[in-house]
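Quick one, probably user error.
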């Protein structure tokens, strides 16, 4: 057997023997690893109406940290099918990890560019930019020309990874997360006419030095264009994950932060029209990507998926008890309003059904929503007339629970009474509105909260008591509308 076959065979055995799907915390409609560990989404692409999600996958974790690209597909973004690993770490240039990268459709093929991670005999890092192509999503031959970029250019360290490839003029641009020799983070831009032969164009630059010394390394760049929903004016969005920046008030509190700039990209000059903004203020969110589309796919808004996890925070109940850890977020439709990205879960599955709490006034103690008693996978949509504080409880007030407490202009998420209390509680500024729209996506041990039409997003892992689950609402407010889509 080739080393590719040996790896894939062993991964399939690990998947076969996995206890992950027996776990009452294993999600129903979020992409999760069939065994072991998952991190960044990779190569997100929709082809012939099928959504392909590749992801950083460690099938043997925690015993062996080898990383390949896992692969899952769905045509409704709710039911996901697991496929064999697509890219194993089986060549000299990727033997210590097939790291993150992106997808692009060209010439009747899907091209997946990725970073080959190598540790030399002394444990020093080497990084190689590589590619595979596929026409059937079953075989993913590595290019004979690999590695396409055989290391960092002068002036940059081997922390060069996560190629994001996008059409650019008559050819393609590759944006790479990088680090200058002086240990500051940046993005390098390469250009190509054929996706194989890449020429360094230089750094992605900004009109001033605001981002010249902004963290020590940048990971996972993404670039895409979308119009402002109110004015129709087109903007470019640049997402990246600058490691080592300081928190800003309640923002950027995770071990590694992740955010975006809105502006205009001309050549390699990005002129931002606002500040670097956090994408999701939750305890777990990192390394997001936007889906790209094959030729002939219907136009759709940019659709984002992020990793609901953080580097080195693997110590979750699911790993000890059922041998798996981390999930991807739900796919989120992005709209741009007033320079800010708004995120809402893509609506494809199920019709929302009204809840009896709709049209009632809340006063004081928690009122359970009887329709969601024992239902652990759902999307809940609320429209609330806010007076003072009100809160939503996931789980039993007298047992394991998460609270989402809304004061005017502030959301406090408290998971200190759960089985994974890491970070305990966190506050986040939200718009102070008389009428607030809140969407809660909850899927067994995953919770994603979208406030004010998606203006603010907050994601967390919420390990509750699978036997004792209810949703309740409390406080001083009026429930103008309430509906739930059950996804069990
Ligand atoms: C981000 C990241 C990427 C890298 C990958 C390795 O979480 O560190 O920069 O390609 O994960 O798994």
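Nope, works fine. Designed sequence:
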């Amino acid at each position: 057997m080739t080393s590719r076959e040996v790896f894939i065979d062993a991964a399939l055995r690990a998947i076969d023997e996995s206890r992950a799907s027996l776990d009452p915390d294993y999600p129903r409609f979020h992409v999760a690893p069939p065994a072991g560990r998952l991190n960044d989404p990779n190569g997100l692409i929709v082809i012939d109406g099928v959504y392909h999600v590749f992801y950083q996958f460690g099938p043997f974790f925690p015993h062996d940290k080898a990383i390949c690209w896992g692969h899952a597909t769905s045509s409704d973004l709710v039911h996901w099918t697991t496929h064999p690993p697509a890219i194993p770490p089986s060549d000299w240039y990727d033997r210590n990890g097939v790291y993150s990268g992106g997808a692009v459709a060209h010439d009747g093929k899907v091209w997946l560019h990725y970073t080959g991670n190598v540790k030399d005999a002394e444990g020093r890092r080497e990084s190689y930019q590589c590619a595979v192509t596929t026409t059937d999503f079953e075989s993913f031959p590595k290019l004979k020309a690999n590695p396409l970029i055989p290391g960092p250019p002068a002036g940059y360290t081997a922390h060069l990874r996560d190629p994001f490839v996008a059409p650019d003029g008559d050819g393609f641009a590759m944006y790479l997360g990088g680090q200058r020799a002086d240990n500051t983070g940046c993005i390098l831009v390469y250009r190509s006419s054929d996706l194989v032969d890449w020429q360094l164009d230089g750094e992605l630059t900004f009109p001033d030095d605001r981002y010249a010394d902004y963290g020590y390394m940048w990971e996972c760049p993404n670039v895409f264009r979308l119009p402002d929903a109110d004015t129709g004016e087109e903007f470019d969005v640049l997402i990246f994950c600058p490691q080592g920046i300081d928190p800003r008030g309640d923002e950027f509190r995770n071990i590694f932060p992740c955010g975006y700039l809105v502006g205009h990209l001309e050549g390699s000059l990005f002129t931002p029209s606002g500040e670097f903004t956090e994408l999701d203020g939750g305890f777990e969110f990192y390394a997001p990507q936007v889906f790209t589309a094959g030729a002939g796919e219907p136009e759709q808004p940019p659709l984002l998926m992020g990793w609901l996890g953080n580097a080195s925070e693997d110590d979750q109940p699911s790993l000890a008890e059922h041998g798996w850890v981390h999930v991807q977020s739900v796919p989120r439709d992005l709209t741009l309003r007033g320079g800010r990205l708004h995120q809402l879960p893509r609506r494809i599955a199920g019709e929302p059904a009204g809840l009896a709490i709709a049209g009632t006034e809340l006063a004081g103690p928690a009122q359970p929503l009887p329709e969601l008693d024992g239902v652990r996978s759902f999307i809940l949509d609320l429209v609330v007339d806010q007076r003072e504080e009100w809160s939503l409880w996931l789980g039993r007030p007298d047992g394991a629970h998460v609270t989402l407490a809304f004061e005017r202009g502030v959301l406090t998420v408290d998971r200190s009474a759960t089985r994974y209390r890491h970070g305990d509680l966190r506050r986040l500024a939200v718009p102070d509105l008389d009428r607030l729209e809140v969407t809660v996506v909850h899927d067994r041990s995953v919770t994603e909260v979208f406030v004010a039409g998606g203006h603010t997003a907050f994601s967390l892992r919420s390990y509750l008591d699978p036997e004792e689950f209810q949703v309740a609402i409390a406080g001083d407010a009026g429930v103008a509308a309430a509906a739930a889509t059950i996804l069990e």
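DSSP finds two helices and 34 strands in the chain.
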